[in-house]
């Protein structure tokens, strides 16, 4: 037997890529999915999947809620996967979800912050080369980040305009 060299993966099947994990960023509850669907502005399409992007309130926005509102504010990104029966039998749906989770796990750092992202893969994901699937997931993540940044910038601009208008109206004449 050869000695294990530092910096090399052990021969126990342990991958050096396992550093990133989807453990804390997965949507798990049905209610979370439903909130994301209603908060998403629209359904977006790509070649191999459709997806929904729903911004979540920040700590400051949650602080402005009514006193009776006691829902916890979870910061950071969350991602959900769906694979309905239309995609095939259970073993096919499971394979699709495994491939999608692996592609997301490799790029978990690209998930848009303070947003829920739900991916609906199509059946072509089963036969698709993994490199192409990974590239498609990265493209969607980058597009989602850009959309979220654009929406936040627009929201800030509108709030600044409203403040300026309010200040203008409150000036004595």
Task: Describe, in short, the structure shown.
With 173 residues, the protein is α+β, with helices and mostly antiparallel strands. The chain is 42% helix and 12% strand.
Structure description:
It is built from four helices and four strands; from the N terminus they run H-E-E-H-E-H-E-H. It is an alpha+beta fold and 173 residues long. It has one domain: 2-Layer Sandwich (Ribosomal Protein S5, domain 2). The protein has a four-stranded mixed β-sheet, sandwiched between helices. The longest helix has 41 residues, at 130-170. The model is unreliable at 8-17 (pLDDT under 50).
Which terms summarize this structure?
alpha+beta; Ribosomal Protein S5, domain 2; 12% strand
Total number of domains? 1
The low-confidence runs, each spanning 5 or more residues with pLDDT under 50, are 8-17
| Rough outline | elongated
User: Helicity, in percent?
Assistant: 40-55%
Q: What is the CATH domain class?
A: Alpha Beta
Structural class: alpha+beta
Give the C-alpha Rg: 21 Å
Widest sheet: strand order?
1-2-4-3
Number of strands: 4
Helix-strand topology string: HEEHEHEH
Oligomer: single chain
Give the topology.
Blueprint: H1 30-39, E1 43-45, E2 49-55, H2 59-63, E3 78-81, H3 90-106, E4 115-121, H4 130-170
Parallel strand pairs: 3-4
Antiparallel strand pairs: 1-2, 2-4
């Amino acid at each position: 037997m050869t000695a294990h060299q530092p910096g090399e993966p052990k021969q126990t099947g342990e991958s050096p890529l396992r550093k990133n994990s989807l453990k804390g960023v997965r949507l798990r509850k049905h209610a979370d999915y439903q909130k994301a669907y209603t908060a998403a502005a629209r359904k977006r399409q790509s070649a191999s999947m459709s997806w929904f992007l729903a911004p979540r309130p920040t700590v400051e926005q949650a602080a402005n809620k009514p006193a009776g509102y006691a829902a916890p504010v979870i910061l950071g990104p969350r991602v959900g996967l769906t694979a309905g029966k239309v995609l095939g039998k259970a073993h096919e749906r499971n394979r699709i979800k495994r491939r999608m989770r692996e592609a997301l796990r490799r790029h978990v750092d690209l998930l848009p912050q303070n947003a829920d992202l739900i991916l609906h893969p199509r059946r072509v994901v089963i036969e698709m080369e993994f490199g192409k699937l990974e590239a498609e997931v990265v493209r969607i993540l980058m597009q989602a980040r850009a959309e979220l940044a654009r929406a936040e910038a627009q929201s800030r601009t509108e709030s600044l305009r409203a403040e300026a208008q309010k200040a203008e109206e409150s000036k004595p004449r």
